[in-house]
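Reopening this ticket.

The earlier resolution said the output was attached, but the attachment link was broken on my side. Pasting everything inline this time so it's all in one place.
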Amino acid sequence: MYSLAHRPWHVFCRISLQHRSSLSHRSPRFPQLCYGWQSATSIHSWRLTPPDCRVSSVGLGRIQRYSASGDSKDPPKAQSAEAPSADKPPSGDLKATPSLSDAAAEGLTKTESIQVKVRAVLKKREYGPKYTQNNFITAVRAMNEFCLKPSDLVQLRKIRRRSPHDDTEAFTVFLRSDVEAKALDVWGSHEALARERNLRKEVEREYQENIFRNQQLLKEYKDFWGNTKPRSGKRTTFLQGPGKVVMVAICINGLNFFFKLLAWVYTGSASMFSEAIHSLADTCNQALLAVGISQSVRNPDAVHPYGFSNMRYIASLISGVGIFMMGAGLSWYHGIMGLLHPEPMESLLWAYCILAGSLVSEGATLLVASNEIKKSARLQGLSFYEYVMQSRDPSTNVVLLEDAAAVLGVIMAAGCMGLTSLTGNPLYDSLGSLGVGTLLGAVSAFLIYTNTEALLAPSIQAEHVQKLTEFLENDPAVRAIHDVKATDMGLSKVRFKAEVDFDGRVVTRSYLEKQDIDQILNDIQQVKTPEELENFMLKHGENIIDTLGAEVDRLEKELKQRNPEVRHVDLEIL
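Inline output:
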């Protein structure tokens, strides 16, 4: 065994493999002959070293170890004191050794290095729950929220951004961090700024308390110097369209109520009383419609950003409830009382004359309302029946239905009064009152139902929704449209909302078409470090996002131009 110490290390490996079975029967004091490949790792390279194979020789009373690598250190302790059995396969390190040739084994005696490339990863930034370093703020907000003056904003950095409004292309904003720093420079500390804010809130509260007095003073000032503003559109509203129909109906129904009331006082007819109450209810309800029309043309404000167009539906709904309570209720009451306590009636000649005049006047109002609805239905491509059932114009619908009920009520009252004159039985007159009340109840129920549906913002027709969707899908920048909602806001005003899946390649190409490609290529060639790459991507990434916003604005503008009834468009990026 001493002569084997001068042999190369791979000879020991072959001896160990060839005589594995015989060695396994020897004393368990023999450690493993080969400990396999050892590796040392670093961040960027691997170092391969030859196996540390050592042979143990047995002497008298002591053990000597010889190493082919010349290492005088002791080998690592074996995990088991027993030699490997012949039935068990060799370890993974030992199994790989026989596949090495002698030349390869000799070549691996020297340390070899293999270079491994490591991917450079940017460190993830933690922005925290509240990050406003890059937020923009307008000049108005800067002055209101940070109590600054216009002169304080002159020296700050100004940034031009796309305007969210259709009437302006771009507007100037400031960095919120710059505004906050300027506010601290002006006021000295956060506490002083907070005190100034509280003081201004107190002044604003006092102004709100005295706003009525200020409005009165402004009115007196205008009256003294003369109002040079253009005449309000509210006056012209009642000279055309639904406003004209309502004003005509108010005048005619007011006269009808006056004459019917005189006829009821003279004759004591229950049917005539029902007709007088009917005309009174119509006059009051149409006055309420006039208020709704006047309020519906108000401009949107901060509290009502979508305007007051639904005021017409609210007024029509209240009108329907009023017809039911006042008209139908009183007519039923008077008819029931006539059945329970019939009384003889005086001459009905004047009643017939007044009913004939009411029939003519109510018919004229019905004709005016009918012509207005036909004209509006023709403009929107609907039939007369569809226009009425969808309650596109609630004010005109109320006038139409009330006048139709008035004409039928006049005919019904005249017929019942004629039967009473022929038979002398006042019960027919009471039945006429009940019939008029039932007619008014049916009209009020229809008005309540249609106006309630309109107030719930129903969807527009499916064909119209399909038309709007196809227009967006035909645009090259759009891949798909999802979650489409098109609701009728009242008075033929449509609000359109959709989730839009944009084609990022088309948007990026649209951005590149406006850039200097040679300059971009030059910038790319100058990128050498991850920091330079990050700055390059941040610059162009922000510009591409702005291009995407411009694409959204373009689609919204074209959608409104092609469909004038679409007043509000909300396109959300998917």
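Reporter confirms the inline version is readable. The two ends are 79 Å apart (CA to CA). Confidence is low (pLDDT under 50) at residues 11-111, 227-233.
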